[in-house]
Amino acid sequence: MKKALITGITGQDGYYLTKLLLDKNYEVHGTIRRSSSINTERIDPLIADHSSSKRLVLHYSDLLDSASLASLINSIEPDEVYNLAAQSHVSVSFKNPVYTTQTGTLGSVSLLEAIRHSSKSIKFYQASSSEMYGGGIQEQLNENSKFDPKSPYAASKLFAHNLNQIYRDSYDLFCVNGILFNHESPKRGETFVTRKISRAVGRISLGLQEKITLGNLDASRDWGFAGDYVEGMWMMMQHDKPDDWVLATGETYTVKEFLKKAFDTVNLSWEDYVVTSEKYLRPNEVDFLLGDPTKAKNELNWDNKTSFDDLVIMMVESDIELAKQEKVLFSNNLISPTWEFPKT
Predict the structure, then answer these.
(1) Which residue of the set 131, 184, 231, 257 is catalytic?
(2) Domain-wise residue ranges, the chain
(3) Can you tell me whether residue 314 is helix, strand or coil?
């Protein structure tokens, strides 16, 4: 039985990757940060699944604690390590640049060093990001396109990306970089624009919310389904040779187009419910991102299976069900009527 260690297991990608690996009969270990509140909500269904619970083990650790990471790798001796953990909200990275860059850089160094000194041959996956390109040109971006990061988050990702290549070339380690373009799902954090939209649509359609406030509606992104993208991560780790691959749909849509599709799902006009505010604009805006997944398709036989329309509908339908649960709580006075949708 193969063993995998996942940092960031409680995030969106952590959930889908854990589910995939458990389905493939892996023993999965994941790192979580110790805090005063339980933060395993996304993966709780996987933990509760008795068929997989013995193969899913959580460990307290932190990307800033190199000793704990080295200890975990030495004790678990995983076959594969997936580094998904990060402070991944771009806007937040401008407000907390030190923490963002520390987690994005020191964590990857610590993991690579532990793997380099391990007596076992361990494969390493680094979660790179399309944000590293900067969005300054309106063309399809591939593995050879120029990087031009526009945020502390993107800069930290580029550092880890380059370092991963250095360790691969210098120490002959199996290190891969997955340059993933935007990937969404019902498990996406509620502060990210796509989930903020689908969450609001669900609540607006049931009369629980009146408006949604957003920033740049003309920003264009290549949006895919996270469940498809974690399959690509796993495929990279099974390839006979380590390399870097872009995962994307090859299509781009604006925030405005996402809004239209989401509100169309509940037969409402988005213009009646959306307001914009400069508060939600980035200090250094990334206007356009479009990926070229040709290499991943040809070498990994990976493909994006979920269309843009199906992705939006999936997210809205899931959040309508969540809003129905909220409405029951409202009606039973278990949530105050003055409760507001979280703002970022």
Answers:
(1) 131
(2) 3-184+223-247
(3) helix
State the sign of the Cα–Cα–Cα–Cα dihedral 318, 321, 323, 325.
negative
- CA 228, chain centre distance (Å): 12
Whether 129 is catalytic is yes
Give the DSSP letter string of 162-176: HHHHHHHHHH---EE
Task: Evaluate if pTM is beyond 0.90.
Answer: yes
Q: Are strands 220-221 and 253-254 parallel, antiparallel or unpaired?
A: antiparallel
Task: Dump pLDDT digits (tens) for 256-272.
Answer: 999 999 999 999 999 99
**Which one is catalytic: 15, 82, 125, 153?**
153
Contact between 80 and 237 under an 8 Å Cβ cutoff? The reply is: yes
Annotated catalytic residue: which of 110, 129, 130, 156?
129
Q: Is 131 a catalytic residue?
A: yes
Is the domain spanning 3-184+223-247 CATH 3.30.750.200? The answer is: no
